């Protein structure tokens, strides 16, 4: 018997159990859900929001644990606070240096959670879907492009080539199309991102 019905929002179902609004009816999960509910009650608001955000991504339990725990997160090179990660989940793929056990958080993993397609898109409010040219997304893709270039031996990448690679990073239907004037403008989308040349 499945944990929830087809078409039901998995996070909302689990959240209802964690908050005591619904009882876990499947005996094989009841004990674990009770323990999770007790832990959930001990967490405060930023951690609740962070875990709700992480539920959107296809992460392993080990990845979630090291992101949700501030000490483990710092050990993996992710210096963002709960609130900073909630505001910009792309920081996970930008900063994650791993722990040698679980996989790095990939840009594609974050992007699929921020721009879900198909059935997954039903479970996110439209206003929470990241725009194609959202500055957080552009920066996240730029960091991935520059990291890839560095791994291939490039020490500098011309700005025009960086924008070209950003645009080609995803398939056409998911393309990230940065506006060069906005990227270079006062918003400083790429502030702090190195290895760019003029």
| Helix percentage range | 40-55%
Q: Any idea what the radius of gyration is?
A: 19 Å
Class by alpha and beta content: mainly alpha
How confident overall, as mean pLDDT?
A: 86
String of helices and strands: HHHHHHHHHEHHE
Number of helices: 11
Tell me about the largest β-sheet.
Answer: 2 strands, parallel
How many individual β-strands?
2
Q: What is the percentage of strand-forming residues? A: under 5%
Low-confidence stretches: none
Shape: globular
Sequence of strands across the biggest β-sheet? 1-2
Distance between the termini: 59 Å
Describe the overall structure.
- With 198 residues, the protein is an all-alpha fold.
- 51% of the residues lie in helices and 2% in strands.
- It has eleven helices and two strands.
- The chain has helices at residues 10-18, 27-42, 45-54, 61-68, 70-75, 82-87, 90-95, 107-114, 135-151, 159-168, 180-184; strands at residues 157-158, 196-197.
- Strands 1-2 form a two-stranded parallel sheet.
- The protein is globular and about 55 Å long.
